[in-house]
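hiii, so i know i said id send this last week but things got crazy w the move. better late than never?? heres the sequnce for the chain we talked about at the cafe, plus the structure i predicted for it. fair warning i was half asleep when i ran it
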Amino acid sequence: MAIAERTAQTTWEGGLARGRGTIVPGSGAVAGLPVTWAARTEAPGGKTSPEELAAAAHSSCFAMALSLCLGERDVEPERLTVSSTVTLDEVDGKPTVVSSALTVQGRVPGLSADEFRSAVDQAAELCPISRLFAGASITVSSDLEPM
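okay and structure toks below
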């Protein structure tokens, strides 16, 4: 049996260039999110995109994985800030998500920079969304904030 299953539904109206859609997460945590091709490839204009949602999934999942890895070292972070930049590019004439670049900053009392980097490396192997993106180029940079 699966640990969890989550759903979202997108309703799209019109052609690609001028059409528009609404993404409705199954949880109800947020209201419908507007999405358009222009928001995806040009200026967002208050709309989201699959890449932005993938970035949100990757950064939040990685933060949870890192928190777990730090807990296994008997330390608890005061704060972890994980940013993800998901890149859509053209590959062989087709739009393709080619990478997710993570930037990790942490405030973790009692942990050295080397220990933090070790936990980050462990989280990179553990994070379920990183494993989903395994075919993409994923980079992770990290900084431990001074106390």
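btw The first strand starts at residue 8 and ends at 13. thought thatd interest u
miss u guys!!
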